Amino acid sequence: MDSSANVENEPLVQPESIKLEGNLKEVWQIWQLRRNFLCLLCLLSVSSFSYYLINFKLKNVKGSLTLNTLVSQTSEVAADVVSVLVYLALGPRRGFASGYLLATLGALLLLCFPDNIAMIPFFVTVAKFGVASSFNTVYLASVGLIPTMFASSVFGLCNVAARLVTIAAPVVAEQAYPAPMLLCLLAVILGTGISQLIIVDLPKFE
Predict the structure, then answer these.
(1) Is residue 178's pLDDT more than 50?
(2) For 124, what's the count of Cα atoms within 13 Å in the CB-facing half-sphere?
(3) Residue pLDDT, tens place only, 33-59
(4) Strands (E), 104-157
(5) Which of 88, 160, 166, 182 makes a 20 to 30 Å CA pair with 115?
(6) Which residues pair with 18 in a beta bridge?
(7) How far apart are CA 159 and CA 180, in angstroms?
(8) Which residues 6+ apart lie within 8 Å of 115 measured at CB?
(9) 126 CB-contact burial (10 Å; exposed 0-12 / middle 13-18 / buried 19+)
(10) How far is CA 168 from CA 53, 55, 57, 123, in A?
(11) Distance (Å, whole) CA 175 – CA 171
(12) Of 109, 107, 118, 108, nearest to 54 (Cα)?
């Protein structure tokens, strides 16, 4: 009687456990890690490109350069704090989505109302807050979505790819309106979609 009760109380599906050997190629061989690696690579590239594009574009945005820069940097500091709280409360998918959706809204406002000088500081704040938040979330997620023994190597590879993509940011920023903000808008929308492909429920690694 006791034995049957114990059997009924046991989970029907035992948690999957994978023993790692410490070889970096395992990141590619294990499909969950491979997907997370590719997602992080794309998200860091999107965040880095958008972040620096907005910074370079500020000098061409109408209104006070001093005021726009001030609100941009203030929103970045606030985003770094808020992104940690959102990530801990909602997880990586919603953390990325919230940042990218704010960036999408800000970029869309800058794209649609480039001559509204009174509101441009607010538009810049929204866009920079969203991009900086998603940028910071990549750093947080890289530790939680990749086993510790591979986290630094994987992030290093992602960082190399992101820096290569970011080389285009100052070039794009110098293009005529509306190309820079349009590309920024497309990038953050792409980031929103990619962030939902992240595998949160990973196997147990040993």
Answers:
(1) yes
(2) 29
(3) 889 999 999 999 999 998 888 888 777
(4) none
(5) 166
(6) 205
(7) 22
(8) 62
(9) buried
(10) 9, 13, 13, 23
(11) 7
(12) 107
Please check whether residue 162 is in contact with residue 106, taking contact to mean a CB–CB distance below 8 angstroms.
Answer: no
Measured CA angle at 199 (ends 159, 96), to 5 deg? 60
Backbone angles phi, psi at 82, to 5 degrees: -65, -40
Side-chain-side CA neighbours of 30 within 13 Å: the count stands at 25
**Which two three-digit tokens encode residue 192?**
């929103």
List pLDDT tens digits, range 96-133: 999 999 999 988 888 888 777 777 778 888 888 899 89
pLDDT above 80 for 11: no
Q: Find residue 205's DSSP bridge partners.
A: 18
Percent of the chain with pLDDT over 70: 89
User: Cis before residue 92, ω within 30 degrees of 0?
Assistant: no
